[in-house]
Amino acid sequence: MTAVASRPVPAPAKAPGSTWHRLTPLLVTVLAAAGAYAVHRLFIGTALGQEVDTAALRGGDFHHPRVSEVLTRTLDATRLAVLALVCLMAAAFGVLRRRLDLAIASGFLVIAANLITQQLKAGLERPLLDGFPAPNSWPSGHATAAASAAFVLVLVFPRALRGTVGLVGAGYVAIVSVATVWAEWHRPSDVIAALLIVLACGSLAVFAVRLRRTGPAPAIRLPNRLVMVVLGVAAALAAATAAFGMGAVALSERPLPDLVSGRFAFLTGTAGIIAAVAVTVIVWVRLTAGEPTTAPTPQGDPK
Length: 303
What we know:
The chain is mainly α. The chain is 69% helix and 0% strand.
């Protein structure tokens, strides 16, 4: 008799390395904090940086009835009550899905990001290098509030929905952020720094969650590819537009006065904000892809 050859059994997919899985959020925290510091040094600590930043702020002084209505309503909706509601939702999701650690991480994200933002805004001084006297507004409290709310919802929602929630949240954060510049409350650098601060605080919270976890790292389920492609394309196009626009605005402020209009400077700042929103949301959605929103089942298959 001849023995029947058995079919080869495919090897199970390897889980990501536990050490790298735990340290990735800490690396993101360091990079985001360094990015916020670099933004401050460039746009607050140099004369040309201040001039480009302020040109975008002053260029937002134009009115369109329908656009003004949308931006005003969005700013009015970004209040402390919204943050409190988000924290309650995060706590409820954590209890219902047996992930109290994610609920605590969400609370830390919101409180730490908004506290750091307010302390920096109150404690830092803005040297007068651009001839436009104004108190320090770096970083933006409204952008911090909007981004922290969006990030918390991404963290506590089921992993299958995180990409979609991230896309919707990115749209909301972008509208709030652009509205603060349009209303002449903040410069683009204020907004970009706020986004980086929220990302740093959120990543630190995820690091703490992973640090206390025992056993092998859970399998990473990648977010919706279409959503990530949309955000990636938006980030690339907006970043390229912002880079070109900043060069033109810088030339207009120094060797070639009146090369571009104030509205062009505002649109350049808007492109920079959109790029920053898209990049931070991509990083956050990708980072949270390794965090299941329910406790592992007895078989060890996290949902």
